[in-house]
């Protein structure tokens, strides 16, 4: 029986292409569940590659697979031809092709208008091919030249073509993530490491049920909220007549509403990865031990919405991509023997912005994010300086949030600091998110200007204060004298 896609799409208020994508996306769950019954090694790679390609074709059409093939070939050919620099070649080659697709399809505009194209999936695939090539390049280096993550994920031999394609398209994870490592994928398909016969394998069904319930709640909230907070309001003349606090509250609600769409998507991805068995990441140390599914997790909803520090946001939002950025951009920009600084943070956020697309709103959002995180490290200067607990310092000793929080013994003052930082994070995160949602330079600056650029000014002021004020030394308990 043919599905009446137009009627179904109209019922839930989405376009036909989006509905087709959603149906294929949800289908990743039953398809991933059959993975458990596929014989190991080559049959598993074939199953991963063929089901991923089929879902891509049904979602986006034949051209989507051509785009994926180009990106995968860039990585595989670079590994085969010039191993010493294959990671760098793949990074710029795959990113360049992704940017070209972003520009050609103007994907941001399509997504805003309820459309869909293959560039979202290509974004995830790009990260996979880059990580694989970089890990293969790392296989040439000595242990003393590698960081812990590089030692853990490096590849000593080149993956076969079927292993590589299976890794890229497995479980339909290229649709929306999560991003994972080739080393883990090979262990999973070959029954090694966490998936060996010596390790007890947990039942996935409880965790899958939790992820599906979470997905249903997230989608329900999104569908309820989105009609009440349209982005078009930012350019409506009536918006300009609102008071400052009403405008700021509307910006918060727009950001809050948009996040539930991503929570829904990532919950479905989580269910698919968990039911395949690949999401298993070990057992807890509790008694009795409980299975962990960290590899499948892409967002901690409460962690994001109740974050008491902007530093916490990358740890709880788009978790696997944040991990990728840390391992393949942030850490690799830090010279050996040196500490990371604002440059590495800004460069990482810029790469993340370009990965999303070349819209001004993306660039502004991720620059804002760098300011937000850097400002959060010093946001607690204000209440502490008012309490006469700070003194001048040199720039290299600029305050870090955790130093401030742990530097004071007063329980009340710590609570005040936490509350101030929570309010700061809430303000700047949702203010910054407007650029990510509206994308255009005019709309972004109009929305920011309507609240006097408060979310930009406050982080900058706090960062500058960090060059003047330093946190007090942590309070230390005095050693007790031994009884004679």
UniProtKB/TrEMBL annotation:
A biological process term (GO) from this entry: lipid modification
Signal peptide, first to last residue: none
A Gene Ontology molecular function term of the record: acyltransferase activity
One GO CC term, this protein: endoplasmic reticulum
Location(s) in or outside the cell: Membrane
Membrane protein topology class: Multi-pass membrane protein
Coiled-coil residues: none
Membrane-spanning residues: 12-35, 55-76, 88-106, 161-180, 205-225, 262-283, 419-439, 451-469
Keyword field: Acyltransferase, Membrane, Transferase, Transmembrane, Transmembrane helix
Domain of life, source organism: Eukaryota
Pfam families documented for this protein: MBOAT
Record bears the keyword Repeat: no
Listed name of the protein: 1-acylglycerophosphocholine O-acyltransferase
Species per Swiss-Prot/TrEMBL record: Carnegiea gigantea
